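Notebook p. 47: complex prediction with iron/sulfur cluster.
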Amino acid sequence: MKIFLDRSACIGCGVCTQISPECFVLDEGSGTAKVLKEETEDPSVREAETGCPVGCIRVE
Ligand code: SF4
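Predicted complex, structure tokens below:
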């Protein structure tokens, strides 16, 4: 699976980093999430996609 993150829409809530800490981290400088692994088989990224309150994560 590939992870796409629209950082311009991210509000830095941290939900994705809690659900899928292997794949997302909060960037303290910008206050937005950053993708650690662009390709993964970790199913938690699907939960992060669903859980993101602004829908800025897409997993394909
Ligand atoms: Fe940003 Fe969405 Fe992650 Fe919240 S869940 S930090 S809005 S990408």
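Notes: The longest strand covers residues 24-27. Residues 5, 10-16, 32-33, 52-54, 56-57 surround iron/sulfur cluster (CB under 6 Å).
Next step: compare against the earlier run before touching the bench.
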